[in-house]
Amino acid sequence: MKKLLTLLFAVVILPVVALSQSPALVGYWHNWDITAAPYIMLDSVDSRYNIIDIAFAVPQAGTDYQMEFIPEQVTPAAFATQVQNLQNQGRKVIISMGGATAPVSLDNAVERDSFVASMTSIINFYGFDGIDIDFEGSSISVSGGTIANPIDAKIINLIDAVKQIMSNYYATHGKKMILTMAPETAFVQGGMSAFGSIWGAYLPVIDALRDSLEILHVQLYNSGTMFGIDGNIYTQGTADFIVAMTEAVIQGFNTSGGLFAGIPANKVAVGLPACTNAAGGGYTDTATVKSALDYLLGKGPKPGTYTLVQSGGYPTLRGMMTWSINWDAVNNCSTSSYQYAENFQKIFGTSTSLADVNQQRFSVFPNPASDKIYISTKSEGSKRFFIYDMLGKMIMSDNYSSTKEEIDISSLSNGVYYVKLENRIFKFVKY
Questions:
Q1: Which of 80, 195, 373, 392 has a 20 to 30 A CA-CA distance from 37?
Q2: pLDDT higher for 50 or 18?
């Protein structure tokens, strides 16, 4: 057993982009054609989008639970081939359920089971990698209970349905299904204002499925104003709104329905419109987005009045989401095509080449370590390091000035940690 543990803990020191959870650029793809944002063949989507959400699986006519997905411009067989073409490039394609104009309501066990069966069939036929929950409007609402113990049938049945769909997927494919969520701010951060109706209504769903959740990307648009965890009110379309709303879901917050414990930074992405015409409100220019994300990632100054609770930011923040790929592809509402994807690339970078590792100017050793680690650097001058746990919580920081700095880690519990040095991140194991 000891030998096995040694093998498991022999972690190669890599930048965060080379870890299993690379930065995600999530984009919604329209299954329809409009003049302002034309239809794009699925396998022609810009390569920087590594998670593509197909919009949408919707209820069949006459129901609000029996789901269907019918490609609009190509045959189902051709669409399945396009899905596979993207997957062959290492990208993930998932089916988003619902949307703003297609309410889904699972009022009882019969409707829940029909929902499960129809979604499982859609996933298997097209070969999707998972599902995205984009329930809006009347699809989810709270009438009582708490975050930990919901009492509403729609919420309970949705949680049970998603668990069953994931179980079905694993039984068929032998691997974990990807699960993402795209709630509106009222359904999440709105829980700080009230816990009832749509306010905070997603929180029981997020809480119940947190262990299975891959990415939570709240829609930071069509929102208006919202409370931050500092008790102040922030307005959409600003750097402060992006920073405050993002830290709220990471740190968690109190509601009248109980504590929302928060989601690790590596499961959180920032969701914004690709351009002004893509949403009714909340578009944020690329420079402001970059300043907000740089601050959240701990590599830039505070861009507004909101101050992060966690000094050093959240370097494991998962990425960005946009509505939508189609809007990003046109240049009639921005200065250039794929401006959102380009901004993501500037913020997170896209290289995962192992050659980059050999060129790094820093190293952290020994790895694994028991009581101390050393930072070795070829550069001189005063710098600052940060140590984070697996949840993205900063647990230690200090300045260092020598080319070989000793850091006492004896007080840390055994486990996996990250050291951040000048925007590079290294993984090490404490045993």
A1: 80
A2: 50
Q: What is the pLDDT of residues 129-153, one digit of tens each?
A: 999 999 999 999 999 999 999 999 9
Can you give the CATH number for the domain in which 318 is found? 3.20.20.80
157 and 240, same domain (yes or no): yes
pLDDT of residue 391: 64
Task: Specify whether 340 is located in the same domain as 386.
Answer: no
Per DSSP, the three-state class of 115 is helix
Q: Quick check: is 136 catalytic? A: yes
- Lowest mean pLDDT across 31-35, 185-189, 400-404: 400-404
Contacts 24+ apart (CB under 8 A), 202-206: 202/140, 203/147, 203/255, 203/257, 203/260, 204/142, 204/145, 204/146, 204/147, 204/148, 204/150, 204/155, 204/159, 204/257, 205/133, 205/140, 205/155, 205/158, 205/159, 205/181, 206/181, 206/260, 206/263
pTM over 0.85: no
- Looking at the structure, tell me whether residues 283 and 306 fall in a common domain: yes
Choose, from 136, 184, 247, 405, the residue flagged as catalytic.
136
pLDDT digits (tens, 9 = 90+) for 80-124: 999 999 999 999 999 999 999 999 999 999 999 999 999 999 999
| Under 8 Å between Cβ of 302 and 294 | no
Could you list the residue range(s) of the whole structural domain that residue 422 is in? 355-430
- Which residues touch 319 (CB under 8 Å, ≥6 apart)? 23, 24, 25, 26, 215, 269, 270, 344, 348
Q: For the chain, what is the domain count?
A: 2
